[in-house]
User: Fold NAD-dependent protein deacetylase, SIR2 family from Lentzea albida.
Amino acid sequence: MTLRRWLDEADQVLIAAGAGLSAAAGYDYSDAARFAELFPFLHAWGLRARYQLIGLPLPPRLLWGYWSVHVDDIRFGARPNPVYEGLRDLVGDRDHFVVTSNVDGLFARNGFVEDRIWTPQGDYGRYQCETPCTRETWPSRPVVEAALATYDAATGEVTAVPSCPRCGGAVFLNVHKGPEYVPDHYVPAGRRMRDWVRDGVLVLEIGAGYSTPGVIRSPVESLVRTLPSARLVRINRDHADVPADLGERAMSVRADVLEVLARP
Assistant:
């Protein structure tokens, strides 16, 4: 298979991952059955999937009722994930880096070295002031656990609504949802990646579609264009097309990542 040959020939491997990878791993924001199981109150309201909650204005107690359950489920689970473990095995001991729009921490939780992971869209593992009154951000696990301890599934609400340690105002997770986003915690990893990458890199892009193409899809295409010996493998079930100008340096794999990992 050409993918395996390209991996063996690569000086470096840059894994560039979008939402499709985590969906393949079981964290699908459109999963209606899982939504009904976790959020019975919101399901009774008529909501059917997690993606419907992104940006939806809710009263603070209901807002943190949803987000504390969601983040606990998707970010702080301790169990290993076979899809991410399979990807780690595929890369093996090759020199590699990760850039991902996913904010679920699954790479670091499944054997990838944390200082070789850049998450430009943020991480559910941190939170920030909504104003923001400071550039500082904080680990979110303590406030998520405190909120969960007061969660009432019948109402979908919590009573322990977190607030900013500095100004006492509203807070939210340290993820890119608007101009208030504070990316400072993730900037050093982006610099490390830029210093690390060189010609001959193989970009292994997985599950990056067109919902936020400016985060993963377009930048890696531009990267490969600027490096004459770089290659791009795009693994995507629905949007596997590659730019014609990259010619034989780009490979389209129209498949679920699970199928690719299962191939010898």
